[in-house]
């Protein structure tokens, strides 16, 4: 699939204002990228420098996805990503995108058996591995007993300069 992965700073900049949403902050982030030609858009989100979650805009399935390994609520993050996609379409394509009329839905991984962490420090590993599973269309097979393996795998890939 065609995948675009936003920087870990993207969502923070998108939500950086009194109202919690500001498209102008990130409107230039896709100058060279047509998000609407993608199958999947991955958005890692840092919550208050204490927890990582993952959101995805699954263009192929027409849904906004939210994965929190602690099972938490999205606190309006999917609403912001909905507004972002509508604004991005207006800004880049000069078209109105009606998500309701075209059948877009919200999907919460916690409601569909996505793995949960059993400690207070593996959220970053869960985000990285969940993003990789989504990118490859693979099952979310993140057993807690395999976290050390996933940590070592990520470390090796980062040291080689290429995620596998």
Automatic annotation (TrEMBL):
Domain Ubiquitin-like protease family profile intervals: 1-134
From the Swiss-Prot or TrEMBL record, what is one GO molecular function term?
deSUMOylase activity
Is Protease among the key words of this record? yes
Q: Can you list the GO cellular component terms from the UniProt entry? A: nucleus
Any Gene Ontology biological process: protein desumoylation
Pfam families cross-referenced by the UniProt entry: Peptidase_C48 (PF02902)
Q: Nucleotide-binding as a keyword?
A: no
Taxonomically, which superkingdom? Eukaryota
The record's annotation in SUPFAM superfamilies points to: Cysteine proteinases
Entry keywords, A to Z? Hydrolase, Protease, Thiol protease
Can you tell me which family this protein belongs to?
Belongs to the peptidase C48 family.
Q: What is this protein called?
A: Ubiquitin-like protease family profile domain-containing protein
């Amino acid at each position: 699939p065609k995948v675009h992965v936003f920087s870990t700073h993207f969502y923070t900049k998108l939500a950086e204002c009194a109202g919690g949403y500001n498209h102008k902050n990130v409107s230039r982030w896709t100058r060279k990228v047509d998000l609407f030609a993608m199958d999947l858009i991955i958005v890692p989100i840092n919550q208050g420098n204490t927890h990582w979650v993952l959101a995805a805009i699954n263009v192929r399935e027409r849904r906004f996805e939210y994965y929190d390994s602690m099972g938490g609520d999205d606190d309006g993050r999917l609403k912001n990503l909905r507004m972002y996609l509508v604004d991005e379409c207006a800004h880049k394509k000069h078209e109105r995108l009606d998500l309701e009329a075209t059948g877009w839905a919200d999907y919460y991984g916690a409601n569909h058996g996505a793995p949960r962490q059993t400690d207070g420090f593996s959220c970053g590993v869960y985000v990285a591995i969940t993003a990789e599973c989504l990118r490859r269309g693979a099952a979310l097979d993140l057993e807690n007993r395999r976290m050390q393996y996933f940590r070592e795998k990520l470390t090796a890939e980062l040291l080689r300069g290429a995620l596998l």
